Amino acid sequence: MSEHQYAMVMDLNKCLGCQTCTMACKKQWTDHDGMEYMYWNNVETRPGKGYPRNWDGIGGGFDRYGQLAPSPLPVAEDYGKAWEYNYEERIFDGGKKSVQPNDRKLSWGPNWDEDQGKLNGADNFYFYLPRLCNHCTHPACVEACTRKAIYKRAEDGIVLIDQDRCQGYRHCIQACPYKKIYYNEVLGKSQKCIFCYPRLEKGKVNACAAQCPGRLRFVGLLDDPESPVHKLVLKYKVALGLLPERGTGPNVYYVPPFNPPRRANYGKGLLDDPRIPLGYLKYLFGLEVIDVLKRLETELAKAQSGEQSEILQLLIGRDAEVRYRIVDVHTMQPFDSSPTHLLQLGLIKR
Amino acid sequence: MYLRKRLIRPFLAAALLLAAILVVLRPWSSRSAVHDHAAASGSHPNPPPTKMLPPATNLRIRVGTSQAKGEALLDAAASAWDQAASTAIILNRTPRLYQTEPVQERPIPGCQVRALRSGGNLWLRLQWDDPTKNAPEAPPARKGEGGELLYKRPTGETAAFTDAAAVMVPDTWIGPAFPSLLMGDKQSPACLYHWSASRGARVMTATGRATPQPTGQTIPHRARHENGLWVVTLALADQPDGYPVAFAIWDGEFADRDGLKFFSVWHVLTKKDDVK
Ligand code: SF4
Ligand code: SF4
């Protein structure tokens, strides 16, 4: 257990699937040799196979006796190889051919089954699931690394791989139930999301959150009562970790998606005939998801009847200052960049 | 709490069952104890081995001397190697890393080592069985129009592992006890010459398990995979006679890496003619 723990909450009801976060991360961190297939932040359509393909079906994390249960390693095709298009053919050589990838045998990519979803009776359903390393409380990757190259920072709970110690053995990739560590073949090292610690240390929020037009990411210390993540996860209890039964204690939390009931059931409660089958949400977020949905439905009813809902107000999160609380972990004070007008209005506290 | 109950209940049930069985079997127990004791005390001779093991001289590596120029010895087919004594190394398999991992039944590869001193180096010629060559390497960066390097170098395979071999000698050693076989210890650090089919041969030092650190040095080496055999020649810093040396090999085909490997116990370097 670290002294403090950075966490992120994502409201899945607001994600547009635009991949701006994915690109923000790519440009910031994974634009180097050996990293082209890596998306430390990826956004996948659920239900779907995700990235790497079938990551949630192959194992990893701890079994019920607390033993590491490593999975097989995903192969390059499971991540999807980067491809180019036949622009030259299309533009210069006759111009009649349609634009297609040069490699015609592609079978997977980081967003292959986008917007496919599934049918629930006559109604299609899907939602976007942005994923990054969960900077787990009990990281399976740390436990699996025989080189002791992975460590969890005592001051803020961020999990990092020491690139000098790492020998590219990839036990961590097998152990991580979320498959959020990637192998860099050029360097012979494993690499992963660093939760933008160099940005946080300067008072700037993570690149994926900063760029998100859906404004659905909330960032702060889980143990800081002033932080939005503390409120959403611990006070209001409306956000849950992914695949909790894998035993790693993930610190990226999700406000579960609550679609309206299926078409034939207008006016019914969200849980009476849900468009997204509850079994699927239980699979992703654990049994607690039902209580969370009930809580959210109550808040929604409150707001619809004209009352004020603190939870929904926070989830709207219009201003960055409401969504993020980045503090100096040694003093627990925000960095001085906090806008004074919001301080004066009492919307945020120093 | 729930977990604990789940674990304890079957355990209690098993304990009760065992107690019941013991009560029933009591009259026979003294007789079977006598029988067990006889078996344990070795009154039964061991059966002869099904396959003869090489004699104990194989725990010595007989080092010849050669006038051949160093570089020439990198050629595993050089005639100088015919003069060097060949030692069969008995390899052992390390245990699985995680209890949850499936057991892999694999034959232990045969391994032969030859050693020569020349020009202040200890030259080793390692040869071992490996039906598949595994030497994954990141593909080169693609070039744009006019040969310009527009692209980053990609990762081609994420789940491939390289064949590799290592020779371990003490870094500093006062003897007479061997250093720890788990890559040395604080008193006797180990020096590891690690060759990988993907990344060449480099030097590392270690003071025990999980501690090897690359020194940044590389050593002259050459490797060839042919007819299901790896043959690798390496030029180490010379080691005095009487010094211990140990070997390890990794088979990339089976995702060997790290502690998942075949290893030998310590052997001792001796002059070629010391042991007949
Ligand atoms: S999500 Fe995976 S890589 Fe990240 S801390 Fe947890 S176990 Fe480690
Ligand atoms: S940038 Fe925001 S809205 Fe767009 S995909 Fe990422 S999390 Fe969703």
Structure description:
The complex is a heterodimer of chains A (350) and B (276). Chain A has 350 residues and is of the alpha+beta class. Chain A has one domain: Alpha-Beta Plaits (2-Layer Sandwich). Chain A contains 13 helices and 14 strands. Chain A has helices at residues 20-29, 76-79, 87-91, 140-144, 171-175, 197-200, 207-211, 228-235, 278-285, 289-304, 310-316, 320-323, 340-344, and strands spanning 6-11, 42-46, 118-120, 123-125, 127-131, 150-152, 159-161, 181-184, 189-192, 217-221, 240-241, 252-255, 327-328, 333-334. With 276 residues, chain B is α+β, with helices and mostly antiparallel strands. Chain B has 2 domains: 1-43; 57-99 and 107-274, Sandwich (Immunoglobulin-like), CATH 2.60.40.1190. Chain B is built from 3 helices and 14 strands. Chain B has helices at 2-40, 70-73, 80-83, and strands at 60-65, 86-89, 92-93, 111-118, 121-129, 164-170, 190-196, 200-206, 213-218, 221-226, 229-237, 244-250, 262-263, 267-271. The longest helix of chain B has 39 residues, at 2-40. Chain B is globular and about 80 Å long. Residues 24-40 of chain B have low confidence and may be disordered. The complex binds iron/sulfur cluster (SF4) (2 copies). One iron/sulfur cluster is lined by residues 15-21, 43, 128, 130, 212-214, 216 of chain A.
